[in-house]
Design a protein that fits this description.
The complex is a heterodimer of chains A (114) and B (115).
Chain A lengths: L3 E4 L2 E4 L5 E7 L5 E8 L3 E10 L2 E4 L7 E6 L2 E6 L8 E8 L9 E2 L3 E5 L1
Chain B lengths: L2 E3 L4 E5 L4 E3 L2 E3 L5 E8 L6 E7 L7 E2 L2 E6 L4 E6 L8 E9 L6 E3 L3 E6 L1
Parallel strand pairs in B: 2-12
Antiparallel strand pairs in B: 1-4, 3-9, 5-6, 5-10, 7-8, 8-9, 10-11, 10-12
Classes of the chains: A mainly beta (114), B mainly beta (115).
Chain lengths: 114, 115
C-alpha cells in the first residue's frame, strides 16, 4: 500500500464549484504540504502544516484553504474553482526530525476546471 | 528568496550514453540541501539523489551522480549508461537549512532517451 495517498486521482469540475482534494499518509510524519504543478513552472507551495494546530500559507495560497483533520490527513479546498486552478496537485510529507530532509510525495491529483 | 534555475527545458540522449542536466540556484544561506526529483509519465515524484551543502563529496546513487559546486551555486545531475526508463521530467530542488519548511523547485528538464 502507498504511504501517501491522494483522492481523487482525477477530477473535472465547473467554474464556481467547491472542490476538496484529500491527502492521507501512513508514514507517521508531522509535516504535510500541498503543491501545485503547472506546465513549465515546476511545483509551487500552496499550504503547509507542521502539526494539527499549525497551518501556514505558502507562496500561492489565494483561492485555496486547507484543513488538518488529524496528523495523517490534510485536505485542500477550492471554495469556488476557476479555470486557472486547472493543474496537477501534490501532497507531500516529511518527518521531524529528518536527517535527510526528504519530502515524500503522493501520486498527484489532476484537476480540470471548465 | 531562493531561486532555482534549470536552463535546459529539454534534453535528449542515446541509450547507453551519458547525459548531464544543469541546475543553478541562488541563496544567501550556507546550510541547505539540494535534490533531484524524477517525474515519469506516471506523474509520481521520485527522489533520485540528494546532496547536503556541508558535504564536499559529490553524492552518487548507482548510475546517477551530481557535480556540486558550492561556490558557483551549481548542482548538475549526470546520468550514466542511460536507459529507456530514465525518460522523464527532472526537477532540481532546494531546501534551506534556516527556513527548511519548503522545497523550491526549478521548472524542470524533459529528458528523452532514444533507442
Amino acid at each position: 500500500d502507498a504511504d501517501v495517498t491522494q483522492t481523487p486521482r482525477n477530477r473535472i469540475t465547473k467554474t464556481g464549484k467547491r472542490i476538496m482534494l484529500e491527502c492521507s499518509q501512513t508514514k507517521g510524519h508531522d509535516r504535510m504540504y500541498w503543491y501545485r504543478q503547472d506546465p513549465g513552472l515546476g511545483l509551487r507551495l500552496i499550504y503547509y502544516s507542521f502539526d494539527v494546530k499549525d497551518i501556514n500559507k505558502g507562496e500561492i495560497s489565494d483561492g485555496y484553504s486547507v484543513s488538518r483533520q488529524a496528523q495523517a490527513k490534510f485536505s485542500l479546498s477550492l471554495e469556488s474553482a476557476i479555470p486557472n486552478q486547472t493543474a496537477l496537485y501534490f501532497c507531500a510529507t516529511r518527518p521531524t526530525p529528518s536527517s535527510y530532509n526528504e519530502q515524500f510525495f503522493g501520486p498527484g491529483t489532476r484537476l480540470t476546471v471548465l | 528568496a531562493q531561486t532555482v534555475t534549470q536552463s535546459q527545458p529539454e534534453m535528449s540522449v542515446q541509450e547507453a550514453e551519458t547525459v548531464t542536466l544543469s541546475c543553478t540556484y541562488d541563496t544567501s544561506e550556507s546550510d541547505y540541501y539540494l535534490f533531484w526529483y524524477k517525474q515519469p509519465p506516471s506523474r509520481q515524484m521520485i527522489l533520485v539523489i540528494r546532496q547536503e551543502a556541508y558535504k564536499q563529496q559529490n553524492a552518487t546513487e548507482n548510475r546517477f551522480s551530481v557535480n556540486f559546486q558550492k561556490a558557483a551555486k551549481s548542482f548538475s545531475l549526470k546520468i550514466s549508461d542511460s536507459q529507456l526508463g530514465d525518460a522523464a521530467m527532472y526537477f532540481c530542488a532546494f531546501l534551506g537549512g534556516g527556513s527548511n519548511y519548503k522545497l523550491t523547485f526549478g521548472k524542470g528538464t524533459l529528458l528523452t532517451v532514444n533507442p
